[in-house]
Hints:
The chain has eleven helices and six strands. It has 233 residues and is of the alpha/beta class. It has a six-stranded parallel β-sheet, with helices on both faces.
Amino acid sequence: MGYLAQAGEETASRAKVRVLLVDDHTILRQGIRILLEAQDDFEVVGEATNGREALELARQYNPDVVLMDISMPEMNGLEATRRIKKELSQIRVVILTMHETEEYLVQILQAGANGYVLKQAADYELIEAVRIANRGDTYLYPRIAALLVTDYLKRLQGKPAEELDPAFESLTAREREILVLIAEGRTNREIAEALTLSIKTVENHRYSLMNKLNAHDRGELVRYAIRVGLIQP
């Protein structure tokens, strides 16, 4: 079994983002643990070496976020993610992987994960992924998100209007710009800076997007983009 947090460890740090680490490589887990615990807003509540342990510890400690590897013995990370999201839907799952392909991204989102970050990513990207997932949004590693958006825009070029999704066609040019940036994982502040808008204006556009697309959070906006042809599942 992996590391188990002591049941009596109930302190003021309870308000921190409680993270469960799942990876069969001890050195990698230790490195991520050191990284997270150096932040004031994180607490690592346990470690697991495979998907079965992850499910057991998720039931026991109810973490806010699970950092989940894909390739592991006994039960892989995708299957563990599916089971956690089915049984403990309030828990956010961020997938850690070495694979930078559209195929893996589709599988990860279909499993119900709230984020996708490469193991070779910079420290701040991993930290940001956990924070974004904890807020209930979806984090996509910027490089793969950009590839998906580029592919989506190429698919739209020359496509007859009647073949496009009616809801997407109802979006204004500005809303489409913001949808692309949301799909890239940008925050409201980053979008405002990129488009020279106020944060309030970005929030208004985002609210309009969610109404028109019947979406409730960033994750649903990203999944909508996939459904209308961002990538083929």
